[in-house]
Amino acid sequence: MKQACLLALVAAFLLCSCGDGQKKFKIEGSFKGFNQGELYVYGLNGAQKLDTIGVSRGEFTYKADITEPTTLIVVFPNFSEIPVFAEPGVTITMEGDAVHLKETEVKGTNINKEMTAFRLKTSAMMPPGVKGTASQYINEHAESPICTYLLTKYFVMVPNPDFDTIQKLGNMIMKAQPDNKEVAALLKKLGALRVVKQGAHLPTFSVKGLKGETVSSADLNAKVNVISLWASWNYESISIQNLLARMQRENPGKLKVVSISVDGSVKDCQHIVDRDSVKWSTVCDGRMWESPILQQLGMTYLPDNIVIDGQGKIVARTLNYQDLTNKIKELIE
């Protein structure tokens, strides 16, 4: 009897162990010219929270528990991004050179080989060429999981997205993948995204800031107001934060700012806010691109910003550093 019980326990243990193994996903990476440092990894559309990967002697290993296919984004110190298509129980490899990150090869599954081929094909193209190639790929391979990433990367998370094109390509993907929850959710948001454009009035919103304070559209009542989207791992967005701090000091009472961070770690966000002595309210809920306030304001690009006048009218959107500087000066004068 005891022997039977012992065998049953051993069998149960082995079954549980096998089950856990099926959920483990692993990346094994090797990069020339990148001896030591950290990478970031997060899930596209909030599927996996932001995590860090330590690199030592050019190599790293990353493990995650996943229960379904997930698109991960690996972010390098120069803010280059490489998508990795993760599956439960699968190990993939990343090999490359820190000087030529666009040529990084991701192997281990056919879908990652296909994505590598796309990246290599478009590595020397200008942005319009990459976008055209992405559109062609979606037209020809609408059933591929790669399409969700291409739609998000090259059509949604860009300055001034073309919503008609997003709708058209999204419909193609949904026809081939009727159970694609990410694209279905994106298409559902398009109506709201179309509304928040230059010339329209800023939608009314009310959220909690890092200190627990209420942050609302009613707070943006100065002559010039800016909503700025940033992340601790995006250098350009941090530069714009610093620009806004300087311009606010130079124009007391004339410029109000509210910042939204897409950091997956509220702690990392708070660290940057404290380090840079940010004076205005910052919103960070750790939900990254799935944060409801981003969906309400139609902010899909990093860095992003919305410039509002004293009457609550949107006068500009998604300006770069220099254009934002000029627009604020123009409106204040």
Characterise this structure.
The protein has helices at residues 2-23, 110-122, 127-140, 146-156, 163-176, 181-195, 235-250, 266-275, 292-297, 321-332; strands at 24-32, 36-43, 51-56, 59-65, 70-75, 81-86, 91-97, 105-107, 206-208, 214-216, 224-230, 255-261, 282-283, 304-309, 314-317. By secondary structure, it is α+β, with helices and mostly antiparallel strands. The chain folds into two domains: 25-193, no CATH class; 206-332, Glutaredoxin. It has a five-stranded mixed β-sheet with strand order 13-12-11-14-15, with helices on one face. The chain has a four-stranded mixed β-sheet with strand order 4-1-7-8. It has a four-stranded antiparallel β-sheet with strand order 3-2-5-6. α7 (235-250) links the parallel β11 and β12 (255-261). α3 packs antiparallel against α4 (146-156), α4 packs antiparallel against α5 (163-176) and α5 runs antiparallel to α6 (181-195). The chain is globular, with a radius of gyration of 22 Å. The protein starts with a helix and ends with a helix. Keywords: Cytochrome c-type biogenesis, Disulfide bond, Redox-active center. It is found in: Cell envelope. GO terms for molecular function: antioxidant activity; oxidoreductase activity.
